[in-house]
Specification:
alpha/beta; single chain; 188 residues; globular; Rossmann fold
């Protein structure tokens, strides 16, 4: 069995969305990035028992000037990462805005909140407890990560992948149950 899932990564500019997607797919960290204009696209493959998956990772531009075109990138998304920078209070304050944007364009998809740049502990402004609190408010898992060191990056993407597989299998089971019910009604 195999699945293909479109995953979007959203958050303010310069929070490390590109760094996270690159670290996940290439195991590389690049110190200086260019601003993502529109969207970048990467693929990550996983195999869990007999299930093969491919995550099509859409790394969206977080700058305000991309707001009008960004909504088009949400179409068909099956999962999302909302990313903020633990050293940037403004990016944290915008988490709920990003959550609302994801919900507006892709309701019902699994979401993970990521506090990035955990390697910059001495510059930390947002505590882990604050991250946990907002994750609880928006009802999603929360992890801190460092694209620079690789801390938790693979774990986060694998967790999202597992959530997507679980959701897909539940949906498949619901469809089977519905078909059985429909056939029983026809037989009567």
């Amino acid at each position: 069995m195999s699945y293909i899932f479109k995953v979007i990564i959203v958050g303010d500019g310069s929070v490390g969305k590109t760094a996270l997607s690159l670290r996940c797919t290439t195991k590389v960290f690049v110190e200086n990035y260019k601003v993502t204009i529109g969207v970048d696209f990467r693929i990550k493959r996983y195999t869990i028992e007999d299930i093969q998956t491919r995550l099509f990772i859409w790394d969206t531009g977080g700058q305000e000037r991309f707001t009008n075109i960004r909504s088009h990138y949400f179409q068909g998304a099956r999962g999302a990462l909302i990313v903020y920078d633990i050293t940037n209070e403004g990016s944290f304050k915008n988490v709920k805005k990003w959550y609302q944007e994801v919900k507006k364009h892709s309701a019902g998809i699994p979401i993970i909140l990521v506090g990035n740049k955990s390697d910059l502990e001495e510059a930390r402004i947002i505590s882990s407890k604050e991250g946990e609190k907002i994750a609880k408010e928006i009802d999603c898992p929360f992890f801190e990560a460092s694209a620079k060191t690789g801390e938790n990056v693979e774990f986060i993407f694998r967790t999202l992948n597992n959530m997507l597989v679980e959701q897909a299998q539940k949906n498949k089971a619901k469809i089977r149950e519905s078909k059985v019910r429909d056939s029983l009604m026809i037989d009567r």
